[in-house]
Write a structure and sequence with these properties.
- The chain is an alpha+beta fold.
- It has one domain.
- The chain has four helices and three strands; from the N terminus they run H-H-H-H-E-E-E.
- It has a three-stranded antiparallel sheet, with no helix packed on it.
- It starts with a helix and ends with a strand.
């Protein structure tokens, strides 16, 4: 996969919530991509407790 394909995958992952991504296999299939979404958490989900770098990756985000 070329650089443009990797960039597109990252953009698609960033646009979805972590719950959907994990259910879709992101954590099992691409742990490094998952890590990029959570390596510098600034938000926590009030619903499931997951943390993420960007609030748009969570169902009910609140700042840490």
């Amino acid at each position: 996969m070329g650089d443009s394909g990797k960039k597109k995958d990252k953009e698609q992952a960033a646009a979805k919530g972590l719950c959907k991504l994990v259910k879709g296999g992101l954590l099992a299939d691409s742990p490094e991509q998952y890590r990029e979404l959570v390596n510098n958490p600034r938000f926590v989900c009030r619903k499931c407790g997951r943390v993420a770098n960007r609030e748009e990756n969570l169902c009910r985000p609140t700042g840490l």
